[in-house]
Amino acid sequence: MAREQETLNRIVDRVNDFNRRVRDLEEEVRNVSARVNNLDESLLDKTNSINDDLQDMRDEMSEVRDRIANLEVDVREIQRESESFATSSELEEMESYMDVMNPIKNSFVTREEAEKLAEEKAREAVRQTIKNRDSQTSSGSQ
């Protein structure tokens, strides 16, 4: 009987050892399951965060496209308006006209002075014509 008791004790010890091992494995499975659940939740959170970031980026890209389109319209409008701007040569011409009419830089003549100057020029032209005629007659008679 002592032998049977000893065999029975060994069997009980083995069963107890198996039970302990099973409990340890069950605990390890629970820990792994908790980690997997945590990883799942973390992955889901990260995925949602990335999706939100992507949507924000899409919205910003759409806004940038709209801004670029508006800028292109503005540039075309500026180009269309710039066609009516004065060119540098036109500005130089206007500047020269202004210089001519500037009373500070130029002196103007009165009507009387202009008439007197015209009369003098006419007399001088008549004298020149007479002089030319006389020189032609004197060279033709020789």
Describe this structure in words.
This protein is mostly helical. It has helices at residues 2-82, 88-101, 111-141. The longest helix has 81 residues, at 2-82. It is rod-shaped, with a radius of gyration of 56 Å. 0% of the residues are buried. The mean pLDDT is 90.
Overview in brief:
It contains 3 helices and no strands. It has helices at residues 2-82, 88-101, 111-141.
Key phrases:
mainly alpha; 3 helices; 142 residues
- Tell me what portion of residues adopts beta-strand conformation: under 5%
State the helical fraction. Answer: over 70%
Decide which structural class fits the backbone.
Answer: mainly alpha
Radius of gyration: 56 Å
What would the principal axes of the Cα set say about the shape? Answer: rod-shaped
Number of strands: 0
- Name the poorly predicted regions: none
Major sheet attributes: none
N→C terminal distance = 184 Å
Summed over residues and divided by their number, the pLDDT gives a mean of: 90
**Count of DSSP H/I helices:** 3
What's the SSE pattern? HHH
